[in-house]
Known about the structure:
This protein is mainly alpha-helical and 112 residues long. It contains 3 helices and no strands. Helix 1 (2-25) crosses helix 2 and helix 1 (2-25) runs antiparallel to helix 3 (63-91).
Amino acid sequence: MLGTLAAYLLIGMAFGFAYQCLQALEPGPFFRGAGDSTLPQSLFFSFVTLTTTGYGDLVPAGNPGQSIAVLEVLLGQIFLVTAVAKVVDAWRPRRWRRSDGNEDDADGGPAG
């Protein structure tokens, strides 16, 4: 569980640093109307995007930033769905799991 949380945080931080790199490479401000962004702003935008919260206070001005933001949203959703599925699978009671091809139903009796 903690490993999943750490991976999620690393993904958000990696995208935040990618936004800072784009700002250094692209002419003009990275965020529309906000001027040059600081690292805290890029990290904030990254986690707001990763979690699909989308406050709208920071918006990438150009296409490279917008495209990476879309990639981050997709990756964040896939990661979240996969993580929730793993947690649900791990917390499912043992008697609900099929083992060794046994087709017993949920109450422990034979199926049929």
